[in-house]
Amino acid sequence: MLSSLLQHKGKILISIGVVFCFALIRTFENSLFYDPFLEYFESEFTNVPLPEVDSFKLFYNLIFRFGLNTILSLILIYTLFQDKGILNFTAILYAVFSILLFAAFFIIIEYFPNSNWLLFYVRRFIIQPIFVLLFIPAFYYQLQNSKK
């Protein structure tokens, strides 16, 4: 087992580095990104109206954060699987999900201001690297099944 770890030490180091970058983004989110919803969702928000937002600034910062998470996720997936087909498929999925999530996010803000929980979950998928947590086990399972 130790020889297997030593054989894959590059993959392990890059993976740890990417996870560390995810942690840095999360740790410094208040100072790195404009997001009035950070404080809003930390409070008791169920009966409180949505905060006033600068839509352009919010959109820019959410795209920036989603982009950082996407790039780190693609690096992690390529590092783990070393497969350009999986990487391309993942990139396409991220592009499709970004369009759907950002459209849903701004539709909820503009037309459904009382849908706090829905906004909470859509925003969670935008600002957190949740997709990579879903993709890695799925691709691993797919590769294990294709070897049989």
Can you describe what's shown?
- There is one protein chain.
- The protein has helices at residues 2-7, 9-27, 29-32, 37-42, 55-81, 84-111, 116-127, 130-147.
- Helix 6 (84-111) packs antiparallel against helix 7 (116-127).
- The radius of gyration is 18 Å and the shape is elongated.
- 15% of the residues are buried.
- It has 148 residues and is an all-alpha fold.
The fraction of residues in strands falls at under 5%
Mean pLDDT over the full residue set? 92
- Helix and strand element order: HHHHHHHH
Counted by DSSP, the helix tally is 8
The general outline is elongated
**Roughly how many Å is the radius of gyration?**
18 Å
Q: Structural class of the helices, strands and pairings?
A: mainly alpha
Oligomeric state, counting identical vs distinct chains: single chain
Please give the alpha-carbon distance between the first and last residues. Answer: 23 Å
Helicity, as a percent range: over 70%
Number of DSSP strand runs = 0
Q: Which ranges are low-confidence, i.e. pLDDT below 50, for 5 or more consecutive residues?
A: none
Please summarize the sheet with the most strands.
none
List the helices and strands and how they pair.
Elements: H1 2-7, H2 9-27, H3 29-32, H4 37-42, H5 55-81, H6 84-111, H7 116-127, H8 130-147
Helix pairs in contact: 2-5, 5-6, 5-8, 6-7
